[in-house]
Specification:
The complex is a heterodimer of chains A (about 90) and B (about 550). Chain A has about 90 residues and is an alpha+beta fold. Chain A has three helices and four strands, in the order βαββαβα. Chain B has about 550 residues and is of the alpha/beta class. Chain B has three domains: about 120 residues, Glucose Oxidase, domain 1; about 100 residues, Orthogonal Bundle (Enzyme I, Chain A, domain 2); about 290 residues, TIM Barrel, CATH 3.20.20. In chain B, about 45% of the residues lie in helices and about 15% in strands. Chain B has an eight-stranded mixed β-sheet. The two termini of chain B are about 45 Å apart. The relative contact order of chain B is 0.10. Classes of the chains: A alpha+beta (about 90), B alpha/beta (about 550). At the A-B interface, helix 1, strand 3 and helix 2 of A face helix 2, helix 3, helix 4 and helix 5 of B.
Amino acid sequence: MITRKVTVAASGGLHARTAGMFAQAAGRQPVLVMVRAGHGKAVQARSLLAVLSLGATYGTELTLEADGDGAAESLDELAVLLSRDLDAEPVDG
Amino acid sequence: MADRLTGIGVSAGRAAGPLARMGARPQLPPPGPVTDPAQEAAAARAALEAVAAGLTARAGRSQDRTAASILEAAAMMAADPVLLDDVTERAQAGTDAAHAIDAVLTGHREAMEAIGGKFAERATDIDDIRQRAVAVALGLPLPGLPAPGHPYVLAADDLAPADTAGIDPAVVLGLVTERGGPTSHTAILARALGIPAIVACPGALSVPDGTIVLVDGSAGTVGLNPDPAEVAAVRHEAAGAAAARAAGPAGPGQTSDGHPVKLMVNIGSARDLEGADADGAQGAGLFRTELLFLSRSQAPAEAEQQEMYAAVFRAARGRTVVVRTLDAGADKPLPFLGLADEPNPALGVRGLRTARRQGHLLDAQLRAISAAAAAEKADVWVMAPMVSTAAEAADFAARVRGAGLPVAGAMVEVPAAALCAADLLASLDFLSIGTNDLSQYTLAADRMCGELSDLLDPWQPALLRLIAACGQAARAAGKPVGVCGEAAADPALAPVLAGLGITSLSMSARSLGPVRTALARHSLAGCQALAARVLAARDPAGARAAALAPAG
């Protein structure tokens, strides 16, 4: 099991568009990525409803977990996404 | 089935076309016995996938990118892999499809509500998905306005103001409701838009979708599967009326006798000025500047602010832009404002009040707006949110002029500002009434409290009387007063507001057409007579009834 710890940088937290972008990116990975907030329950990162249920706001520390081929690359990609301020980036068309 | 239904005609004219039913919120029947759990699971998945596909299609058709991204997020939730798994599992354990969907999504909604804050806002999206998926699973029409992709005659139980916000007279040919009376919202809206309408028409919802119907709003009859020659004649007649409607009130907003009422759009960024709908606007009546600030831990630099404002001014192409300075508070917190938690954020340090402690942030914003306005040679007006006193207004006006901006105004959101409108205008150039907040503070009813929504009805006499006070003060001062907020988008209310002395209405782009049409159906004197009758009413129903009564 590979893990990455990352702090949510989106100033609005993972609540709307940002949560969707994250879940979508997780769904594109070749491995099943799980995510948990603090010591909470790990949930599927590709599920928008599950990601919302983390209640992650700006500054919440999340742990990403995955197994298998490509797990490290997948977690790196998702960690980079979470450490960007997604709310400050424009909605593309 | 009979070949004709009868009700009360409330808006004259004839229309013919395929009927589309507006679904009520689906009522779950008692749980049914399940003989084939695998089939229930498949039905439940199919219902959620159908809802997701419908939302994706709507997102694709949406002109507005913000709206499209909201619909896309909703589509993602409806097709959520964990949701599909949970619903499948529950159905396989012996629950029917509709109850499985209902139970799982209700659980998710409760989870969002328990987290609170912005997450609680997602509860509404989840509820909407739940109702849609349950309706599909039960074979009922989808709740909300139908979107069959062609013009239609709308059949509904009754129409609430919220249902009617999206009604476009180019798409909705006629209205037929099972309930409602001559003074219902349906009636007033239909007359405002010039759509033939019939209320109190039992059986309307039993007519299958797609049935060709002929609505006669004068006779109060709905013909089912009428003679094709008659349909052709009515369509020809309606097309002429529609063409006249489209040709007549295009361009600037005005009454039938040419009294101007500026029609503008509410925007959050330059993107909101794109698209054909916004082209018809005479400018931006409310430019919310929060977007740039909300996503920050530090206040954005002046140069960055200037760039964003300049983009908006460019997109306005010479039209007026009314910029609202930063509107934040304990309910919309920004880390760099250093606001403490407040027991009652709605009544706390918010809007212009944040400048009491952090005046430099406001001055920096004004400098950035001024530099952008100068660079783009734009017609820029600036207004402050949450102004309550003449002293606050004077202080703000001095800051705005000190920054080199010529036009300063204030939002009227608290009753104090409306009651002292003349004093505010002594130092300001214009006022803009934010009816959503003004309702909340006047009726002391939280905007988020669904149980109190009757108090937040824009037809409440107390609200209309405060608007009238602003209109009177502005007229006496010879200065403009606008309305931005939901009331500005209500076509039925537009002539009333014009009659109360409102000189501009700012709304979402899609409401411009209906409001323009409604205004053009009255003369200024007609609007004033209408306003006088509405002002004398003692409750919202009375106000609507007064708006419908024949003039004289």
